[in-house]
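Please, is this right?
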Amino acid sequence: YLRSSGINAEYGVSKKNKKAWRKHTEIEDVEKFLEEKLREERTGGNPSEKSDKDLFYVDKSDLFETTKSKLSNLRCHSNLQIDTRVAPVSGYSGPSKKKKK
């Protein structure tokens, strides 16, 4: 239900087509109400009206507990382990010393 404004009703503005209807109809109060309702839906309503149980909860699951087996199976940790398939690199001994004659 959209109400016509008092000014438009006094002058008898025709609302014969869609353009005139949009131009001469005041719907700010309806838009303001709908925006308020949409904002409440997005934010979950007014937090001062809700109880503490609705706002907060205690997570009792063990989802975030990690064990050593889970950590050892990670690829980043396996890259740090020694690979026995590769021979160790011998240390650099410096330039070879040759005797001059």
Q: What stands out?
A: The mean pLDDT is 76. The chain is about 40% helix and 0% strand. The two ends are 113 Å apart (CA to CA).
